[in-house]
What does this fold into?
Amino acid sequence: MSAEVIHQVEEALDDEDKEVMLFLCRDVAADVAPPDVRNLLDILSERGKLSDVDLAELLYRVRRIDLIKRILKMDRKAVEDHLTMHPRLVSDYRVLMNEIGECLDNSDVASLIFLLKDHLCRGKMSSKRSFLKLVVELEKQDLLAPDQLDLLEDCLKSIHRIDLKTKIQKFKLSAQGEDAKYTKVLPASLPKLSLTDSAHNLRFQNGKNEEKRITVEQQAIQRVPVKTSIRELAPSQTMVEKRYRMQSKPLGICLIIDCLCSDTKFLQDTFTSLGYKVSHFVCHNAQQIKNTLQEVAWMPQHRDYDSFVCVLVSQGDFHNVFGKDETSSGLPLDQIKRIFMADACPSLLGKPKIFFIQNYLVSQGHHVNSSSLEVDGPSVRVVDSSAQHSNLVHREADFFWSVCRADVFLLKQPSGSRSLYLQNLSQKLRDKKKCPLVDLHIDLNCSMYHWNSKVSEKEKYYVYLQHTLRKELILSSILKPSESPHFFQ
It folds into this structure.
């Protein structure tokens, strides 16, 4: 995050906004006590915890939608979609306390302070203090925490704010089965992931700027059936627990399969600069794509590397790729994933497997027969020591799938040798090397949304995301904390 953006935001916030923002971030920067919002945002930025969407989330929480639009060039719906689908910077507990504070008037707060005077240090809390300052004081004395809400609940009942007492009860119910202190949140389960069911894909809608919030029922329908681990915020956790290890040299193999002889030199340069060993192949049909993927999946070098990246540029339909030859049998997208699952590729067990697929759709009348391209079943050729623990990690875990579909019409345009989706991806990977990949992809979606809002239907790019990542993933080499005092810089 640039200093200029931080300065613009800090200047536009009023005192009440700043108090709320400092409160919301108490867990995110628990080891420091920033005196003001500018220093807080600067610290988060240095630590790699302040992407565009993170700052948008904070501004959304303080109800400054105007700054999201004016400074970050994002709309409300994009932020709400991000909050619905991805781990959040601010904990649900902090959001709850802020929402309760917004519903209390001055007399309510004064009554709460009076009721709690026997618990508070005398002289520390005047009747004119804000509710958020009251919350902070109660937290300091270990009287209030995400799993310790009974005292506040009783006080709200005493001042006849049953509506707010009900809010706390709902929060308690939603936290059942989880560690309410969010210090050791267990990864969520990983149901079967399939790219063939387009109805459940995360499609970034184009050209529609709906301001109303998605209802709970709509969220349940639109959400991808893949649960990811919740971002862990405890300051005592090590970076190994929070993030995927990204320290090997190289970080891994970046396989680029270009079936259309397009311009991918910029991608090779980008992933080389990130620390990957890039391998480039030209494949003309689905069989060649399959053979190349399997050969790379079986490479023993993976056991020494921390990740794997695949970029695929091809023609295809909604569920298959078939290279440049439209008459060949198609290779289903979900079979591509199967080649790199833990049982078929044990060398990548527990490591992130990242796919960026640009698929140019041919006419609806084209049908492919994928029956002849069944992927080989799991093999016992090479099983390293990590495979013995395969029962601890789901075979479909640690995948990141970004699929962009566009009309084949674009290949005939003057700029058709370059995918706009891949260009934007490359630029953002270069500019935001310390940004978590999920957040970076949201930023990528925003760029594609902006493009789609001003072009014809045939020129649009439709981006879909599915992932089963269990930790935060940053696609660049990260040193151990002991190796650099400026770990997040």
Summary: Strands lie at 202-203, 252-258, 277-281, 307-316, 320-323, 331-332, 353-361, 399-407, 461-467. Residues 177-240, 365-391, 479-489 have pLDDT under 50 and may be disordered.
